[in-house]
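Bumping my old thread because nobody answered last time. Still need a sequence for this structure:
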């Protein structure tokens, strides 16, 4: 649709895409593009307070060396923590917190609101990009599912906060004092971020052009219990809603965010539950999904009960004991390696795949691509 609007209006697809991301309304953007001002009208769409935008996304790489080579030159290397993505808007005496799906969760994360207000940012006008995570008393991360307990629909906020406090970490500044910064290079945005926030609220990071130094930083992040690192091109602007090589995630152990395409009824102890999951990666070329294989490993009884309910609600057809579903649920899948396979249409399969957990903060468009999966293939 973006491409069609661009062609009809005689403007670039990039201009339409950027305006749509900022406006959150493709219909309004299409009307503006097709109006008398065309590209000039699109240029007026920019980041505004309390109108959240889709977050910038990252590609994947198997190693830090690959990620550094992809970014080229100097790169910002950050901890990759297994938290929930948040976008915080502050101004006019109020603070709003949004998820990566642009849901308003302000009331559920009072720690974030208090941290921002304590710095006097409630009247400055800022938009912060970051993550919030539940930490143990030794500052090591708890499981992702523990963090997500704070985002349930029916909560006793204060009681759960006392039991499971959240810690915010910020890694980008998109808007400051009335001005959008999304077109500024990453380093310029980080310099302004550093001037506003204390170190305790900043994701630890390193600026380097040396792969060996980045690898040491990665080893330290892993030793502290985090997923790995993000490698970001130092001069890159903030591409809202886009996935590209300007940001690259390197996670260890290896995991992928995949979409559940179908599930099989279990047997024995799992009888009555949908168990064996059919997993798919996103195919940007077709807009569909490519099956990579199946797994029933890693599923707890609680997860089996939950996924049976959720998958049946998304059922589209049945083929014997297989229930095919709308490709909506995203699961984080750990695996040992990717191997070539003639059994599946993508030509690859996951070895020793197991479910690490579901990602209710992500939708199918956030899943990893088939190209990201193939990147894990060993070199010939």
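Sorry it took so long. Here it is:
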């Amino acid at each position: 649709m973006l491409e069609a609007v661009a062609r009809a209006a005689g403007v670039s697809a990039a201009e339409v895409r950027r305006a749509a991301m900022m406006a959150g309304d493709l219909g309004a953007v299409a009307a503006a593009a097709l109006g008398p001002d065309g590209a000039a009208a699109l240029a007026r769409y920019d980041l505004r307070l309390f109108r959240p935008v889709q977050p910038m996304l990252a590609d994947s790489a198997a190693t830090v060396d690959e990620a550094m080579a992809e970014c080229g030159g100097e790169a910002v290397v950050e901890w990759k923590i297994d938290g929930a993505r948040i976008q915080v808007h502050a101004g006019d005496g109020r603070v709003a917190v949004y998820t990566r799906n642009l849901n308003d969760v302000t009331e559920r994360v009072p720690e974030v609101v208090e941290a921002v207000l304590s710095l006097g940012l409630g009247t400055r006008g800022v938009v912060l990009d970051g993550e919030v995570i539940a930490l143990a008393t030794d500052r090591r991360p708890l499981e992702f599912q523990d963090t997500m307990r704070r985002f349930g629909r029916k909560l006793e906020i204060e009681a759960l906060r006392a039991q499971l406090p959240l810690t915010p970490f910020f890694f980008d500044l998109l808007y400051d004092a009335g001005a959008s910064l999304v077109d500024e290079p990453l380093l310029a945005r980080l310099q302004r971020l550093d001037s506003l926030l204390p170190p305790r609220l900043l994701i630890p990071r390193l600026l380097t052009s040396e792969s060996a130094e980045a690898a040491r930083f990665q080893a330290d992040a892993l030793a502290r219990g985090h997923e790995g690192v993000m490698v970001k091109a130092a001069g890159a602007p903030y591409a809202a809603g886009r996935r590209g090589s300007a940001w690259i995630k390197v996670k260890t152990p290896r995991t992928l965010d995949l979409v559940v395409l179908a599930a099989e009824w279990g047997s024995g102890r799992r009888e009555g539950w949908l168990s064996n999951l059919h997993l798919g990666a996103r195919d940007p070329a077709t807009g569909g999904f490519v099956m990579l294989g199946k797994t029933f490993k890693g599923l707890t009884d609680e997860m089996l009960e939950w996924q049976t309910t959720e998958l049946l609600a998304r059922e589209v057809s049945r083929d014997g004991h297989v229930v095919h579903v709308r490709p909506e649920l995203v699961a984080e899948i750990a695996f040992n390696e990717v191997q070539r396979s003639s059994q599946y249409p993508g030509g690859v399969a996951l070895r020793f795949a197991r479910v690490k957990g579901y990602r209710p903060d992500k939708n199918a468009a956030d899943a990893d691509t088939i190209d990201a999966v193939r990147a894990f293939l060993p070199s010939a």
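Residues 210 and 242 are 27 Å apart (CA to CA). Let me know if any region looks off to you.
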